[in-house]
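Q: Fold this one first, please.
A: Sequence and structure below.
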Amino acid sequence: MTSIFEGTLIRLRAREPEDAPLLYRWFNDTEVTRHLAMRYPLSMKSERDFIERVSAPGYAHAGFAVETLAESRLIGGVDLLNTTPECRCASLGIAIGDKTAWDGGYGTDTMRTVCRFGFEMMNLHRIELEVYAENQRARHVYEKVGFVVEGRRRDALFKYGRYQDVLVMSLLEGELQVEQRQ
């Protein structure tokens, strides 16, 4: 049996202090953060503090580094957070910071792997996320793994001199779309 932390292309692991320089570089790159809520430069100290805070994943915040299976190369991070045991619901955030990994299936595999983990190991019933309406790449990935649009928050985000709509999407237990084999 494959590890619950592994997909076909990626592995989820705890974030380590050694990850800070790469995360610092990615999250100060406007191309990487274009579709993230981040807008201010991050210091190396703030990145190290973040890693320290989330280095021990648990039910309230299951955060992971994402690395490739083939090379064990760090390419991003993913988090299930704001988890509520009463509702069995969590919010999902993902960032593939390594631009060489974009459009290679790593984001899709990360989404499938972390959602599978949430449903099978955390006993979640619902995973939700927010995505900028203009972020076609992310929307395609989310819909491919089974997320559905529940609503639109009009002009909910101001960034780059204008307002943007934000879509609310969710995936319920039993709706995860597995990879289609050719």
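Q: Good. Now the second chain.
A: Here it is, same layout.
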Amino acid sequence: MEKAWRPVLVIYNFLLLFLAGVVVVAAVGRAEPLDFINQALSTPQNRVIVGTVAIIVIAVALVMIVSGLKYESKPDSIIVDSSLAGQVSITVPAIKVIIMKAVKKVDGVKEIKPAVSSSNDGLVIYLHTAINPDHNVPEMSKNLQQTVKEYLEDIGGLQVSQVKVLIDDFSNSNKAVSR
């Protein structure tokens, strides 16, 4: 919800609290709330005022319900830099292209499927890979993590917090890195 709606929400909630209090007082048998309502609705001018306030409350309630049900899509881009001059963002597909270029530098990787997510510390990169069985897995994984992180930080200007590698298959074929 936008910041401009927050004061309206506070006033709306206080109004609801007041009305709930009036209903509770009337429910325990006190006649004052009912007398007040009868007096408020006794003249045509007062009915117009009460009706207008009720319509405004209903409209605010509907706006809040609709804004609460809106689907907020996941951002398709990651902010690289934000300054007084403006903001620089890079899309997730562009990040994946940088990852694919980095992976080409690592020997033994046959297939890779990158995924990108954002955290408070920076990007989290998931690399689902198939590698050549002739290579040392820990050494190749470390090299892959380091190369991808350096490429994203140097070329993309992105802060990378983690590069997670999942070796899913040892591929014997001589396929090129799939994109």
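Q: Anything worth noting on the second one?
A: The first strand starts at residue 77 and ends at 83.
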